[in-house]
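Please study the protein below:
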Amino acid sequence: MIVLCLGLPSSASTWAFNVVRGLLAESHPDMLGVYAENAQSFHEAVPAGTKNVVLKTHSMDDALCRLVEASDSPMILTWRDPRDAAVSLSQRTGQDLRKTLQDLQRSAACVLSIKERRHERMAIFDYADDCMNRIEPIQAIARCLGVDASAQLVQRLHRSLRTDAVRRNISSWSKELGPEATFSTGFDLSTHWHKNHLGDARTGKWKDADAASVDLLDAMLGGHQAMFRSGGQGEVVLPWKEVARGRMLVRPLPGVPAVQSPAQQAEVYLPRGWWSAEFNLHLAGSGDRLFELRVEAGQGVLAHRLLRPAQGQQSTSLVFEHVQPVEAIRLMCAPLDDNEEIPVEIARVRITRLSNVVEAAENKARRISTQVLPGE
């Protein structure tokens, strides 16, 4: 048996991991707890012959997703407004906020994609509901696992995993590590608690950041929060100048030397589904030059369009399907020559979700089922 504990960083995923361990300790004493984000690291962490595993993770590659889903595993998902989670993680680890934004986007995309699978054995907890300090979530996890947990066991787990109790426990063992221990090195192998693991637990703390950070947090992560609340629909509006970076794009041309184009590129992590990326453009150079808009993921091009810039502002959209939430979507703009000047400026890119992967599959099945075969 594999039990999945998947959640955003700073969303109480470690609490869920320890609730599962506590509930299964008596019935499955051989249960192994591991952290892995891909199938390779999972197989490296789990010795051959291991029958019972609690897998804690913040994101999963496609191979690990298939492994977990094939095992009909119970799934415990934890969520927190990713804007709050990003600020909390940055404060506790000292990690740059921009790097944290990408980590939270990738995790949120994975959690949303798994949530929308509508697995029968799934329990979902929102950090805003104070799940760590209430007894009902522990009872719900026991039901999800199919465990007939005694009232005494549930009470004991509740007392030991409340925020104040965990904070005291971490403080006790982290004193032995010395002041040089960091969030990464101060780590308990059995419980997966870190030094400085718990912050102030406030909801809405992202709004207290400086104005520029608030705007960036909302632009990059507000849409993922909306998708969680709405059941899947939402959009991400990229402030292009804030997030785009330069990139040299090499274009091989038949019979002539390859052309290097000074492209601009922005990355975003999205859950599975069909999407529309609307580029808001205005002319920045000569109007007779051809340029390309492109959407990529992994080694593939999902959508692209060749355009000539027009006077004034214009918008154009690319529709694409995304199936790997842990792979960054790369949105790119580049001229089709070796001129160093990119002929347009992008004000923003509005990425709107058209349907999630489950809806897309259901719609496709519905279309097939209503087709009339020739001769009928």
Remarks:
- The chain has two domains: 2-177, 233-361.
- The mean pLDDT is 85.
- The two ends are 48 Å apart (CA to CA).
- The first strand starts at residue 2 and ends at 7.
